[in-house]
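Deliverable D4.2, example record:
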Amino acid sequence: MPKTQAPLTRQHGKNAFLFVIVTVALDMMGFGLVVPVIPSLLKEVMDLEPEDAVAWGGALTATYALMNFLATPMLGNLSDRFGRRPVLLASIGTLVIDFLVMGVANTFWVLLLGRALSGISSSTFSTANAYIADVTTPEDRGRAFGMIGAAFGVGFVVGPAMGAVFSTISPRAPFFAAAGLAAINFLYGWFVLPESLAKENRRSFEWKRANPLGAFQHFRKLPKVVWFILAAGIFGFAHAVYPATWNFHCKIRYGWEDWEIGLSLALVGVGAAVVQAGLVGVLVKRFGPFKTAWIGILINAFALACFAFAEKAWMAYAIIPISALGGIGGPAMNTIMSNLTPKNSQGELHGATASLGALAMVISPIVMTQTLHNFSKADAEIHFPGAAFLLAALITLLAMLPFTVGLRANGEQIKTPEVTPSAVPDAD
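Output generated by the structure prediction step:
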């Protein structure tokens, strides 16, 4: 076995690894790219002002999330059956089609089709991780996965920034530019990407393993962390106010142009990257994951409340760094859950949290956009464009209830912040 692994790793070297990195970045870019121009595109297609278009924008975001939720386990299982290469190439090809569809869309339903295709094509994150696991040695895997995460972040920064630049031409220009980049990446992958999964390591496709709701059955197997899983789900539900309403909120409240929305989102991405890369580890080591998560929840609630009452555009820019600092909450909660979960249940844990987070991203955009619509329309009894952010702040505080119950339920274990998965007995 060692003799066959070395050539495999060398064979897949730089070209294949670069393709996977670019694929992940493009998938995330495809999500971030569309955000700044959606209000203008809906106005062009449906002749609606942002106050009314936001209700339809929520449906677009929810459709993206729903297709992502349904397609992720499906594509993962298909890659185990047919190999990683065809799934990754199909994803990039679908992304090209998606960008072109969005660029020429002249009705809402065509836009909806484009968002659905984007949700499917962006569901290959797990397949990209599987490819990396196939072609790297155990000692190099951590660094490789770190680069995947970095590509994810870069895509979120570059997407809105690219949308900001090309939106000055037209609301459709960013889609055609992105389609060109995706097409180049598809051709690059077609000629240089080898298959990473040997035929003898493939398995038959099973529908029960492709069930997106299957991970929820693991909740009962994780009684010590279920309260933290619920807290993380509520936290994610509230945080979805940003991708769901930020573009419309800024149009309605500040009268921003598309390029200003893209610029602000790029700044959000940069702030998040700085906090994730430079502060999370330091704070968790200094204060422990429990205090860090607690502080993160409070900062997020405070930042959301500030956005709710920020009547001037400069106030929104001033709050962005505070909001970015709140990014310590999510990783700290993940650390808590991982540390309290035995080594042989880590997969169950991450499957459960991913499913709950994905489901929150399906429901939350509808709730948040409808809230913004009802409080910002011309005939609203109470005119308050910050209502969705205030609601998100209250929901974030609500996450502290299961979090506190989880602290009490775990008793003595929480007094040792340094506890690691290896210190927790394996599940029977």
